[in-house]
Amino acid sequence: MAGKTRVLLIGCGGIGTITALNLEASGQCHVTAVLRSNYEIVKERGFSIDSLDHGKVEGYRPSEIRTTIPDLSKETVAPFDYIIVTTKNIPDVPPHLPSLIAPALTPGHSAILLIQNGLNIHIPFATAFPSVPILSGISRMGANELAPGVILEDDPDRLSVGAFPATEGGDSPPSDAAVAAAKRFVELYAVSGKAVVEYNANVKFERWRKLCYNATWNPVCALTGLDTGRLRLVGEKADPFSPVNLLLRPAMREVLRVARADGAVLAADAEAEEKLVEGVVEAEPLEVFCQPSMLQDAKKRRVWEVENLLGDVVRVAADKGVEVPALSAIYALAKGRMWALKEDMGLINKDEEVRKRNEGIQGR
Amino acid sequence: MAGKTRVLLIGCGGIGTITALNLEASGQCHVTAVLRSNYEIVKERGFSIDSLDHGKVEGYRPSEIRTTIPDLSKETVAPFDYIIVTTKNIPDVPPHLPSLIAPALTPGHSAILLIQNGLNIHIPFATAFPSVPILSGISRMGANELAPGVILEDDPDRLSVGAFPATEGGDSPPSDAAVAAAKRFVELYAVSGKAVVEYNANVKFERWRKLCYNATWNPVCALTGLDTGRLRLVGEKADPFSPVNLLLRPAMREVLRVARADGAVLAADAEAEEKLVEGVVEAEPLEVFCQPSMLQDAKKRRVWEVENLLGDVVRVAADKGVEVPALSAIYALAKGRMWALKEDMGLINKDEEVRKRNEGIQGR
Predict the structure, then answer these.
(1) pTM of the entire predicted model
(2) Is the predicted ipTM greater than 0.95, yes or no?
(3) What would the pLDDT profile of B230-266 be if each residue is shown by its tens digit?
(4) What letter does residue A16 receive in the DSSP assignment?
(5) Do A336 and B286 touch (CB under 8 A)?
(6) CATH number of the domain at A5-201, please?
(7) Residue ranges of the domains in chain B?
(8) Nearest CA in chain A to B254
(9) Cα dist. B49→A91, B63, B149, B170 in Å?
(10) Assigned CATH class of A206-345
(11) How far apart are CA B277 and CA B266, in angstroms?
């Protein structure tokens, strides 16, 4: 373990586990993984992995597994070079991730890599740790935990890494340290030869590009209960009143408009824009009946990543003065669904909310 | 029974049963009601009714109850003066109602009264029976069948009756016969003294006014799973990103714009419009946690009245060149939800739909 790059991995589901496996396949990384629901079974048997990139792997255990995030002020643990977060990102539901990882962070030494979707996901971390390099990881891997400790990776590991802007300011360039940390990580991730990984300085562009799909297909599928294939089957292809033509395409065009206003020109002209939209509409063949992650969450009655995939886009649009009625509608309905879910989970009490509202009215 | 007005009632749930009760309370009507799921229990015990207008009524049976719509070519039955339809209106799901009632209709004698929501609900009937008076009934009664044969009416019976335009043309005036049939019905309905009933010539205006609520609150509640009180609690009252401010109000303003383009001016100026919208947003107190019918349908996994409450509005908007992005989004998502429901009900087969789509593509 001497000389190895020390990685703390938070979120050891499908993408996290394959990420750990690929890093340790380099022989140059020591991964400490924080496990929750799958800890006992992984401790006993290791992960059972069926991977397009790594083949069938039985009994894989990261170098160290544990149930809690280390507190470096209380444990004798060498500092971590990278803290990788691959959890779902739901800032509107506790716990607050920056607070959770703070005890494991060594400012001046550690970098944080967020392999998560969304636009401004770095801001809570940049606010909490202004001097720490915050890196962006955009994964196009398809990987799921089918049962505790059982991982299927059926879409190959393609990772794009860059550095987020240094401050909340948005368009300020990242620090040299952050760029260096990103490039070093890309080198490490490439050693195994099993994954496709690139350093990409244009984090904002990459994140907007992925939002064309994530801010549209994800919530539309989650709200309707339909996968991408089924949704495309509602109405004839040329029907102006089909969900694809009435909502999905307009919503994608809105994402492109907001991206442009935010400085990310994804399509040079109207023709390129239509081609891009068409590509995102037909991202998967009908027959695959692909279930975006938010639809999977809906079916499992788990919280959706509404704020990072959709809320940020609507807020940036408001900030830049871009009208986004389709995205606004989707966002409003998704917010409503999350309220209902949180009430079911016991996180909201309707009578308490009425009381607060009425007091607010009286207070005016 | 001699000299009594003969009424055939189709749809004997909450609103239908109270309508029958009120008509027969006049002593001047003979109601033949077609019952489905509640036939056996009503035959045995009659309806058990708790009515704000009629008090507690045990064992009420319409003058005649039956399980099928009479076929006047095969049965010796006197012709019906009025055929009243109070079923849910879902033209996208079989059976086709005009075909069902055709055998009970005596052209030149019968009038059809549709006590249903929606805008252009008369068109399938006017197309099938061009010479038959088609009447519009807009009910503001709140009545539900709590269990088979058990009716609670907790919001008083207020009925507005008029005649639909004579033809599909839209703005052509109704026939004299239709106006006379509507006025005669209003007189009959008023005899009991228990209901508030009015003749209202401005059917289009009345229908658009009700759509301000029905095309917005209904699907927004159904799609989120939240009642009107809970939905208003999502986000602060002044939060521009709350579902009410981000979606519900814009959708209501769109209904007003389409109505205006269709010749129904519901609000004279911008100030009146905002007042009307505010009134529809706050139609019920928070604490009532009112569940619009579409939300009730969603919870019971029944088909929603999407096309008549929402689809027609979006189609009229397209026809008149009015942009309705919020309503379009809601409609698209509701259509998707109905596709999912119909698949669950065995009415749609996804592989068959893929085959048809692929053949369509090859055919080009």
Answers:
(1) 0.91
(2) no
(3) 999 999 999 999 999 999 999 999 999 999 999 999 9
(4) H
(5) no
(6) 3.40.50.720
(7) 5-201, 206-345
(8) A325
(9) 50, 16, 8, 39
(10) mainly alpha
(11) 11
